[in-house]
Amino acid sequence: MNTKNPNILSQDEVESLPNSFYSHAEAIYHLNEVGIEIKQTRVAEWLGVSRANVSQVIGRMQNNGLIELTDELKLSKKGAYLAKIISRRHRIIERFLSEVLDLPWDKVYKETKKWENILSPTTEEAMLKILGNPTTGPFGNPIPYSNYKEVPMKNLLDVDPNEDYEILKISEELKKDNNVIDFLQKNQMLPGNNIFISDTNKYSITVSVTKNQYFGLDQYIAERVFVG
């Protein structure tokens, strides 16, 4: 009797899907992670493609049982599985490129998008072993199907001034902008580092990561850096 879980794709099934399914499933997954309304226009903005292109791919994904169309775009259970597999690859590769190959953050995101489409489970496990089986990517985002445990965190606009915090996570949105991610790396705003909040208001924040070296963050960045 066939007991295969209909909501799980085999490796052969994953490899038979076009790369456009990978990127769209991952985009929907990441939009959901950061709490952005999941519409076709949002997916198009996230991927940097036209809405017509997204509409075409979403239609094909729906025909393949990967998308449920409601008021918002929603991944089916099978689609969510695909998205998690690709996001898992993405975050493992990010760590490998930044920590083993020592690529700067502003290069990691673009290179990762190339690697994630072809990574095999064998290579994935080899990377994890070299990395020591991390549960997050280098930006603090959880690796799906790892032993990640959620911890309380809040963004920099919600914290109290004159306090020290630990940087825990940087939103996927910020990773997409090379200039922003280069700025964060140069200023040592890395997950695991401590950050001192000097002054904060609803529009901007003044912080220090290296002692007595202060710099400002605008609202957009501050809302997308999470500390605990």
Keywords:
6-stranded antiparallel β-sheet; alpha+beta; 228 residues; 46% helix; 16% strand; 10 helices; single chain
What coarse outline follows from CA principal-axis ratios?
globular
Q: In whole angstroms, how far apart are the ends?
A: 49 Å
Strand content: 15-25%
**Secondary structure category:** alpha+beta
Q: Order of strands side by side in the largest beta sheet?
A: 3-8-4-5-6-7
Chain-averaged pLDDT:
91
Number of strands: 8
Order of helices and strands: HHHHEEHHHEEHHEEEHE
Model regions low in confidence, pLDDT < 50 over at least 5 residues: none
Explain this structure to me?
- The protein has helices spanning 11-16, 19-33, 40-47, 51-63, 77-100, 105-115, 121-131, 172-175, 178-186, 219-222, and strands spanning 67-69, 73-75, 154-155, 163-170, 194-200, 204-208, 214-218, 225-227.
- It is of the alpha+beta class.
- The protein is globular, with a radius of gyration of 19 Å.
